[in-house]
Every structure is written in structure tokens, then in C-alpha cells.
Amino acid sequence: MTGDQPGSPQTRPGLVRTLLDRFGHLVRELSKFATVGGIAFLIDFAFFNYLTTVRDVEQVTAKTISTVIAASVAFVGNRFWTWRHRKRSNPAREYALFFFFNGVGLGIAVACLAISRYGLGSIWPGVFQTPLADNIASFIVGTGLGTLFRFWSYRRFVFVEAGIPPVPEAAHDRPPGA
Fold first, then answer.
1. What per-residue confidence (pLDDT) applies to 114?
2. What global pTM score does this model have?
């Protein structure tokens, strides 16, 4: 046996290498994006709880403050780490688009919660109008879909890729008219 069969041990490193060569940059971006998002989540969580328990700030006000701080940290992390290799445009434009797409991502999470609680909950209230269902719809489904949307939109619209260099004109092998 030569090892040329699909799935044989000798071809797997080549397949993995090929996949990493093709999608490695995307995997690196996704892991950096997830790391920045995790840090932003912890900042949001910590500031919210600090403001509500230690400083006695009203919950909605505290959530607004903690979200703006966390989103600002996420913007800096994504701009200067996740997508540092991308060209920089107007920082005010990037920041405004970043917050706009954050709002859309938040809307996705809220829509998932509303569909679960009020749509499906009107049919099966014992299942979909529970704290567990609310947490699954909001934090797992909603945050998951919102995060996918944010990754795509930041990558596509906020931190845009530099233009593709022009392709040089091909050299002709034969003299003209031959």
C-alpha cells in the first residue's frame, strides 16, 4: 500500500496543511475575535456588577455604562489586534460602524429572546416562558447568531481589507502575429 488512498495516514497531514494554508488566517482572526469578545464580556460583567452593587447605580444606567466601556475596549482590541493587518480608514467612521453593528447584533439576541418567550411561549408557555428558555434563547442562540453577524460585518464593513493589487499584464510566449 502506497499511502495514496484517501484517508490514509500519509495524506492527512497534507490535507490538514492544505486546510490551514487556505483557512488559517480566518481561524486566527476568529480566535482573536473570540478572545477580544471574551475580555469585553468580562469587562461588561465586572463593571455592571461593580456599578450596581458597590456604587448603587440603577441597573439600566449601569448596563449602558458597562456596555459602552466594554464595546470601546472591544473596538480597540479588534482594530489593533484582530484586524491590525487591515488598512485603517477614518477612526470615527470605524467606531460609528462598529457601534451600529453592535446594535444590530444586540437586536438579533433580543429578537431570539422575543421569538422564544412571546412567539413560542404563547404556544408552549411551560417550556418557553421559563428562565432556562430565556437564557438559552438570549445567551446561547441570540449571542451566538449575533456574534457570527458581528464577525462578518466587522470584517466586511468596519475593518476593511486593503485593495487587491492590480494583476500585471501577462507576457506573450509567441511574437505578435505568429
1. 85
2. 0.66
